Amino acid sequence: MDMDGVLVHEDVAIAGAERFLSRLRERGTPFLVLTNNSIYTRRDLAARLRGSGLEVPEEAIWTSALATARFLDDQRPNGSAFVIGESGLTTALHEVGYTMTERSPDYVVLGETRTYSFERITQAIRLIVGGARFIATNPDATGPTTVGPVPATGSVAALISRATGHEPYFVGKPNPLMMRSALNAIDAHSETTAMIGDRMDTDVVAGLEAGLETVLVLTGVTTREMAERFPYRASRTLESVADLVDELG
Question: Whole-angstrom Cα distance, residue 200 to residue 34?
């Protein structure tokens, strides 16, 4: 399941989210909370959810930073990267044996950060022009804040692409790669797994392309009317995850 818009709004738990998680735990049903946000580590996010009154163990959290690290480890083990991002991304890369460098890296890896540096972006552009491969954690153009949207990874990736002529490979949702890496993390199969999300353009399409049942909840970005405009549909549309509690028995 997605996190923002499904379990929480900012730092406030959505009504029924804790009952839903409790029922999953009682049944012993494996689950993962997925997020395209690469800023935070699993521990950070578990603490944030706990502060909202939701108990989610660290191992039940999967981020675009972790998916990116696993992808790079598969592609080029023990490689090197120039990273624009926060601790969630750098920690994930370190844990798979990657080295952070500003000299001839195998990859430029772009993630989310609270303060994008023009100097670091310029370095990234020059390294990509010089031959580094371009990876981005997710294509989200903006991120939400209490005062309105802010530029996110997708927007900065577009800037770098325009300057270099090279498009990044996006690892996070809606890339089915992130879904498959999440399935592997809990030893699950697509035929017996569902994806619950609040966005048609990331959560639902990612689940659809990975062969999962998809559940759209209306507690986040997408309204019922907006969902009808897409060329694909969720398997089910519900008001919130609270509607699933009774179904779990």
Answer: 15
Tokens 């030893």 correspond to what residue? 187
CA distance 180 to 211: 10
Mode of pairing for the β-strands spanning 213-217 and 194-197: parallel
Our measurement of the distance from residue 200's CA atom to the centroid of its chain's CA atoms, rounded to an integer in Å, reads 14
Residue 4 annotated to the active site: yes
The residue from 4, 44, 140, 203 that is catalytic is 4
Burial class (CB in 10 A: 0-12, 13-18, 19+), 170: buried
Q: Verify whether residue 246 is a known catalytic residue.
A: no
Distance CA 40, CA 171 (A): 16
Residue 174: cis peptide before it, omega within 30 degrees of 0: yes
Q: Among 55, 35, 24, which residue's Cα sits nearest to residue 153?
A: 35
Query: What's the pTM value of the predicted model, to 2 decimals?
Result: 0.91
Could you give the 3-state DSSP secondary structure of residue 208? Answer: helix
From first to last of its 249 residues, what are the pLDDT tens digits of the chain? 999 999 998 789 999 999 999 999 999 999 999 999 999 999 999 999 999 999 999 999 999 999 999 999 999 999 999 999 999 999 999 999 999 999 999 999 999 998 899 999 999 999 999 999 999 999 998 876 667 788 899 999 999 999 999 999 999 999 988 999 899 989 999 999 999 999 999 999 999 999 999 999 999 889 999 999 999 999 999 999 999 998 886
Annotated catalytic residue, options 2, 106, 140, 203: 2
Q: How far apart are CA 39 and CA 187, in angstroms?
A: 26
Tell me how far apart the alpha carbons of residues 169 and 137 are, in angstroms, rounded to a whole number: 8
Say if residues 2 and 196 touch (Cβ distance below 8 Å).
yes
